[in-house]
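re: the backbone from monday

yeah here it is again, tokenized this time
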């Protein structure tokens, strides 16, 4: 019987060990837990829903085939995101494009039911952030996405991308400074 660990649900390490032991149907729990985040990463890299959906399938197929290689020295999510990141980078290298998670339509932060003024302010702010992000070098955008939008620690970002922690810290710091300078020019009511 799986033990519910509270807010995050079932313990990923336990689920993985039980899948490896033969309870293959439990893999659906991992897919349900991480599918949305992997899809968001797919949208960042591939810019369309169809390719992002194909990406999700490819990533989870690789994860399933590689489960026995998961040693449990890191969080399962870090290991999964590393596979997803490497799969995406290989796909992007074939296409030579990357769009920040914040630039896409992956996450609706405001409801269509809000009043028109709120929607207008939100859309204006979103466009300003998107424009500022587009000016960042790709290596900065990847670090910003993983840090802010995927809530990964510096160490996890290093594990995922292979970029040293101090370089990641520098990229995030410099990105925040650049974004702050660009966004300070916006009207204060946005």
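seq for it, each position gets an aa:
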């Amino acid at each position: 019987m799986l033990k519910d660990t509270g807010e995050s649900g079932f313990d990923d390490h336990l689920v993985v060990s039980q899948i490896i032991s033969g309870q293959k149907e439990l893999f659906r729990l991992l897919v349900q837990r991480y599918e949305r985040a992997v899809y968001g990463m797919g949208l960042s890299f591939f810019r369309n829903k169809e390719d992002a959906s194909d990406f999700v399938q490819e990533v989870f197929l690789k994860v399933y085939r590689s489960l026995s290689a998961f040693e449990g020295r890191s969080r399962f999510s870090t290991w999964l995101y590393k596979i997803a990141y490497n799969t995406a980078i290989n796909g992007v290298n074939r296409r030579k494009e990357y769009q920040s998670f914040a630039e896409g339509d992956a996450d609706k932060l405001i409801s269509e039911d809000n009043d028109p003024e709120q929607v207008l302010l939100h859309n204006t702010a979103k466009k300003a952030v998107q424009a500022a992000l587009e000016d960042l070098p790709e290596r900065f955008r990847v670090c910003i996405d993983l840090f802010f939008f995927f809530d990964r620690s510096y160490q996890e970002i290093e594990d995922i991308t292979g970029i040293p922690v101090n370089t990641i810290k520098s990229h995030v710091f410099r990105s925040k400074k650049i974004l702050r300078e660009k966004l300070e020019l916006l009207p204060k009511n946005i």
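Residues 155 and 165 are 6 Å apart (CA to CA). The chain has two domains: 1-99, 100-190.
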